[in-house]
Amino acid sequence: MQTTNIYASIITIGDELLIGQTIDTNSAWMAQELNKIGVWVKRRVAVGDSREDIWQSLDEELKQSDIVLLTGGLGPTADDITKPLLCDYFGGKMVVNEQVLEHVKNIFLRLKRPLLERNLKQAEVPDVCEVLMNERGTAPGMLFRRQEKIIVSMPGVPHEMKGLMSKKVVPLLLKEFNMPVILHRTLLTAGVGESFIAEKIQ
Fold first, then answer.
1. Backbone phi, then psi, for 164, in 5-degree steps?
2. pLDDT, tens digit (0-9, with 9 covering 90-100), for 127-145
3. Residues linked to residue 8 through DSSP beta bridges, in sequence order
4. Given strand 39-47, what is the order of strands in its sheet?
5. pLDDT tens for residues 77-135?
6. Among 12, 92, 121, 180, which residue has the fewest nearby CB atoms (within 10 Å)?
7. What's the CA angle centered on 125, arms 115 and 45, to 5 degrees?
């Protein structure tokens, strides 16, 4: 079990983030949760739905972080490319996970909605990942390992990501790593200019 500082990178995926259509609240929440358990967030990166950009971001973040967390790009639409990209990145092949398939069918049955072929594709996962069941949606989380590093891909839907982080990812990280305590102290000031405070601190 590692005992040194543990560093994490957060990669959020989606064109909607880059054009300002969606505000990235995921990475802020994830950073807070990681900080609570003693993980230093080294970088937060937002990339569009571009295979080349996502691949390059993975390469860069794995060079400097022990943990890489991704959100987004796991839905049933054409621009959701994260899953097949991760399959190629880690040298796997896509297979149907029966547990996820049953989960997806049950969700649509409960909601009394028609089940499309693209919905069933949600049950396909790389055979080189550990599936993290998503109780709040159809897209499962996926855990990959490279040497001693952990990579987790989660849906971009905030309440789905939060469920996976709280129930699966955080407990896993606490088990895998021995992290130091991070203590923050905040001093609130009022009525004094920033430059004067800076002089006093110095």
1. -65, -40
2. 999 999 999 988 999 999 9
3. 41, 67
4. 39-47, 6-13, 67-71, 149-154, 141-146, 130-132
5. 777 899 999 999 999 999 999 999 999 899 888 888 888 888 888 889 999 999 999 99
6. 180
7. 105
